[in-house]
Amino acid sequence: MRMVDTATLDGLLKQAIIDKTAEPAFLRALLDAKVYAHVPRHDRNTRVRFIQFTTPDGLTVLPFFSDETQARQAAGTAASIVVLSGRQLLEATRGATLMLNPNTARCTLYPEEIAALLDSGAVAIVERASSGDTPLDIGPVQEPPVWLADRLSALYAGMPMVEAAYLAAVGRIEDKEQQGLLVVVAVFENDAERVARASLTALQADCEAKQVALDLTTVVPDALPNWLTDSNLAPFYVRVHRDYRLSDAPGLH
Question: Is 130 a domain residue?
Answer without folding.
Answer: no
